[in-house]
């Protein structure tokens, strides 16, 4: 188990270093002069030079990269050119929206997908199986932003059960804030639930064809007992992979949904940083999101070792 853990830790560190180099070079080199890009074509040379001094662009490229990485390790993300406040404060404020939204959507997706996938596999080639697979295919095909607009039309404009957008803040009360996140969470969860249900079904069908499943049935276990005691746990490894990837997507890829519902989350912060040419914000937030994705992947690998004893013995 320890060698397996060390290998994954080394992979995590190397992935973070590679990602930081790519993000830094893309945002510092590709636009040309970052100061000129941020201020626009009509900026005065004195203003551009002042911003270059402020951002440290006159220093060597390697020194700027090392300074940026050292700041990240201490929680110093720099100061936003647009908002004139530390980026760490902006991230902290927006994270209290994006993180609960991602967790809420992931919980809904898992609660919907796992029972549906198990039922579909248990009733393979039946009418229920074909119906479930048809609905999940539709869920994958429908864009989540279009589905979000349908939710707004039905539950906000027609039924008036939920607000059409905005976030009142957690100070307004837990259930009030959770209610504001419900429609965005559903819009994010249903397409992901469709993917997860299909993966659960496929993985469970592969497991049910194994010899030890037939042995368990021959010993007198019912189909339900065989599913619960043997099949589901062994079928969870690819499902854990998808759950980890989905959480990463929900945390880092909810830009469109956050804009549809006008939520002040990290996705909307990145969108605003791009439109306002605030490269300092974009660089820091994207690195934070990449860090979250890599750490989640590492945790999924650890979950593998807990679910599959073969990985522990192999380590």
Automatic annotation (TrEMBL):
Where, per UniProt, does this protein localize? Cell membrane
InterPro entries registered for this protein in UniProt? BPD_transp_1_N, MetI-like, MetI-like_sf
Q: Membrane topology per the record?
A: Multi-pass membrane protein
Q: Which residues cross the membrane?
A: 101-122, 134-157, 169-190, 239-261, 281-307
Taxonomic superkingdom: Bacteria
Q: Which UniProt keywords apply?
A: Cell membrane, Membrane, Transmembrane, Transmembrane helix, Transport
Q: Please name the PROSITE patterns in this protein's record.
A: ABC_TM1
The record's annotation in Pfam families points to:
BPD_transp_1 (PF00528), BPD_transp_1_N (PF19300)
Q: Which residues form the ABC transmembrane type-1 domain?
A: 95-300
Task: Tell me, in one coarse class, where this protein mainly resides.
Answer: membrane
User: What protein family does this chain belong to?
Assistant: Belongs to the binding-protein-dependent transport system permease family.
Name this protein carries in UniProt: Peptide/nickel transport system permease protein
């Amino acid at each position: 188990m320890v060698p397996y853990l060390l290998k994954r830790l080394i992979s995590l560190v190397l992935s973070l270093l590679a990602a930081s180099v790519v993000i830094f070079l893309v945002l510092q080199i590709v636009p040309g002069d970052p100061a000129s890009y941020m201020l626009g074509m009509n900026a005065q040379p004195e203003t551009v030079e002042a911003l270059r001094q402020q951002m440290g662009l006159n220093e060597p490229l390697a020194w700027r990269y090392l300074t940026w990485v050292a700041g990240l390790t201490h929680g110093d993300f720099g100061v936003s050119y647009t908002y004139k406040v530390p980026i760490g404060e902006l991230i902290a404020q927006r994270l209290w929206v994006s993180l609960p939204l991602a967790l809420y959507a992931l919980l809904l997706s898992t609660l919907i997908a796992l029972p549906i996938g198990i039922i579909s596999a248990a009733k393979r080639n039946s009418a229920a199986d074909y119906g479930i697979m048809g609905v999940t295919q539709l869920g994958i095909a429908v864009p989540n932003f279009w589905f979000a607009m349908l939710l707004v039309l039905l539950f906000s404009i027609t039924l008036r059960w939920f607000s059409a957008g905005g976030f009142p803040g957690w100070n307004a009360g837990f259930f009030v804030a959770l209610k504001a996140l419900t429609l965005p969470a559903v819009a994010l969860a249903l397409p992901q639930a469709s993917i997860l249900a299909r993966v659960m079904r496929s993985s469970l069908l592969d497991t049910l064809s194994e010899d030890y499943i037939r042995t368990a049935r021959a010993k007198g276990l019912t189909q339900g007992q065989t599913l619960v005691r043997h099949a589901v746990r062994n079928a969870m490894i690819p499902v854990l992979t998808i759950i980890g990837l989905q959480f990463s997507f929900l945390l880092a890829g909810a830009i469109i949904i956050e804009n549809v519902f006008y939520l002040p989350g990290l996705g909307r912060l990145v969108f605003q940083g791009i439109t306002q040419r605030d490269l300092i914000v974009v660089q820091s937030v994207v690195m934070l999101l990449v860090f979250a994705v890599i750490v989640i992947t590492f945790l999924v690998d650890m979950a593998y070792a807990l679910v599959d004893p073969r990985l522990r013995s192999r380590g």
